[in-house]
Every structure is written in structure tokens, then in C-alpha cells.
Amino acid sequence: MGNPRGFIEVPRKESGNRPINERIDDYGEVEQTLNEADRVLQASRCMDCGIPFCHWACPVGSKIPEWQDAVYKGEWKLASDILHSTNSFPEFTGRICPNPCEKSCVLAIHKEAVTIRENECSVVEKAFAEGYVQPRVPQVRTGKKVAVIGGGPAGLSAADLLNQMGHKVTVFEKDEAVGGLLRFGIPDFKLNKKVIDRRIEIFEQEGIEFKYNTYVGFDIKGAQILKDFDAVVLAIGAMKPRDLPVEGRELKGVHFAMEFLTQQNRVNRGNKLNGIERIDAKGKNVLVIGGGDTGSDCVGTSNRQKAKSVTQIEILPKPPEERAAGNPWPYWPTVLKTSTSHEEGCERMWSVSTKRFIGAGGKLKQVELVEVEWTKDENGAWKMNEKAGSEKIIDVDLVFLSMGFVHCMHEGLVEELGVDLDQRGNLKVGANYQTSIDKVFAAGDAHNGASLVVTAIQKGREAADNVNKFLMEK
């Protein structure tokens, strides 16, 4: 620890965001950056605690005190090396991770946590700028071939480690570019997609092969993959969205959130929609159903498309401003979160349920909502009841269903291979990440359920370790 009084002498300073009136006219990244001198000072605030709860809370086990100290000392390459030792993509997590590490920072007790996420992003950007990040081409190959199905964070993480272990890795991606929801789900104003392209170029130089527009289970059968490869990693995500089966669901104007977000991201890429009707919020009343990050992304995208109004509803009660008594540090704080998208303009409502969609001529015109109350039954389980007389009808032109994902897609590859599923519909794996099919493993949301990008990265790493053991024992 370079400065034992850093956390006392230096106040927390965040990078801040671009002005609202500027950023809502484009899809450039919202967050700004601090200069190098300020970043070094922020790193000096890390106390190198006897028990680093930040490390405990981080899914990839980032050695946070170590690389913070390196930043403070100006040893940027060392900081980058430490970061990359547990995470293949600190440039992703440094931008979009909800930073559970900061929530568990000892200084978070007094709401002055170290700016860990922003420091991480600065380290990796410095590393790229200075040329510290270079292709690492394996010098020895094992002769084993591994197919990774899915190019999201879990698949890419697994592919990176397996390639460095000397195996020949081929990533099969159903879309025109890899990244999964990093590329097509998360808006550009949160993650510039050039950041993904930069890393993929390095992976290609390191020997990883990418096959795009190849939907395994449809364009190529799983049986052929099993025949051609020594091991297979299913990193297909949890892409089955949770639906809302109420009256009027079929009306034109009701969409899953990912239909909206992926379309806008493709438009930003310069892709043609090829006959697919454009989902355009311009001049329309938009309702986002679901209060999570994906819903927030719909809010931000609607604002940039110049929606007339944007409303977001959540069926759960409004979270408290501060930690509740039963939600102590260092656990994840269940508190009210206001994103940059919310700041740009959005009416938010909690404890509200959707009763029906109302339309005319097949088009959505209104939505009936009702307030709900949450109570506990005699067993302590939460139950929801509608409040009598609280129904109301609002004018709506577009609805985005943003209520999360239930499990991986079963159609195609999963059904063809006959992989066992758990009770939630995810791929069932053992302690070694192997599925019920010989030499077929699973990584990320496909078996873990929809979760954080940083968790998917770690699950990919753990799966890669187990695949390597399997191959080497063979």
C-alpha cells in the first residue's frame, strides 16, 4: 500500500457523465474519463484491507488491492497484468459491471468506496494505448480441438483460456459478429462496440477461429460438431425471454426488449434490416415493463429515438434509498438505483402490474395497470394482491417487455443433443461443468441462469479449466 492515509486525504472523485442535452442526441459512451493524475490519486485511496472484501465480492476474484497499488506507483503494465490474470476482458467489466466490489469496499460503509470500476477501465485503456496488450500465441499445441458454441462473454472467456492452454478452438456464432448481448443487447452509449472488435482481433491473431452466421443446431447439426471436435462447450446464454400472457399481448406495438435493443444496435452498426419493420419510438408514448438494467437500456434508447414520453413500471415495491436493516454491508445493497437513462427523462412507478393491453385495428393504443400490495403469508412467503379500485388506463403506443430471461433456448441444438435440463430449464451440469452428454460442457448463463457479465466470464474460465482436465486425461 503506497499511501496508508490515501483514503483520509483524498476524497472519492468519479469520472462523471457527458451533459444530458448532449448525449441524448447520439449513441456515444455516456461516461467520461478522469486524467491520469486524478486516477492515480483515486487508486491511492485503496487501504489494502486485512480482509479485502472487494476481492471476496468480485465474481472473477480480481486482485484489487494489488493492481490499485500498482496504479498508485505508476506501474501501469503491472496493473494490467494483474487485472488480466483473473479476467480476459477488464475493458468490458470496467464499463458495464455493476461493481459488487465497490459495494463491498470497506470505505463503502461511509459511502466513500474506492472507484474500482473506473480505475479498472483506466488501467486497461492505458494498457492498450501503450501497447502492453499484445497477442500471446501459444508456442505448443496439444492437437485437441474444442468447439465453443456461442460468442458471448462466457464463450469468449472459455475460448481464451482453452486457446492459451494449447488447444485448437473454434467459436461458432449464430449472429454476424461475436459478443452476444455485449454487442447486440447493451446499447452503444454504455459500451462502444469497437472495444469488442479490438479484443477479437487479438484473439484471431492468437489462433482462435471464429465462424459467424453459423447457428449450430440449424445451419450445422450438433452431431457433426460432436464428430469433428474432442470437446464442446455450450455457451448459448439464457435467451428465452419471460413473456407477459395477458389480454392483448398479440397487438402490434408490444415487443420484447431485446427486439428493440438488438435492432438499434444493428442500425448503429450500419446493418440493413432486410424487410424487418423498424421499431421506432419517435413521437410515441413508451411503456417499459420491468425495472432492471435491460429496462433502463430501453429507456435510454427510447429517449435517443425522441419518444414523446417514457414510463417504466416494476411489479415489486420501490427499494429503499439506504440499506435496510436486513441488508448489511458487505452484501449487495438492495437499494434504489437511478441510471443515466433515468436521468435523461422517465416516469417510474413501483408495485404496479399489467392487467391488459388495449388496441384498435390490431394496434396497441392503451394499457390497463393496477397497483399491487405485497404481504407475507403464515409461512413467511411473499404474496401479491391487487388493490381494489386502483386500476387505471394510460395511453401507450409502444410496450417493451423487460422482465428478464427464464432459461436457454431449447429449440435446435439442446433438443437435438438431448441434454438434461434442471428444474428451471437451464442446462444441467455436474461439478466439472459437464452435461449429460459425453464431452459436452456448459458455461455461463446457459447453466447458471441469467446473471452478470462478470459472472459469465468467470463461469467460462471455470468451464475451460474442466475441459482442459478432461482433454488431458484423455
From TrEMBL:
Pathway: Amino-acid biosynthesis
Keyword Amino-acid biosynthesis belongs to the record: yes
Record GO terms (molecular function): iron-sulfur cluster binding; oxidoreductase activity, acting on the CH-NH2 group of donors, NAD or NADP as acceptor
Domain 4Fe-4S ferredoxin-type: 37-68
One BP annotation, GO: glutamate biosynthetic process
UniProt keyword Amino-acid biosynthesis present: yes
Tree of life domain: Bacteria
One of the Pfam families matching this protein, by short name: Pyr_redox_2
Transmembrane segments: none
Entry keywords, A to Z: Amino-acid biosynthesis, Glutamate biosynthesis, Oxidoreductase
Name this polypeptide is given: Glutamate synthase subunit beta
Phylogenetic lineage: Bacteria, Pseudomonadati, Bacteroidota, Bacteroidia, Marinilabiliales
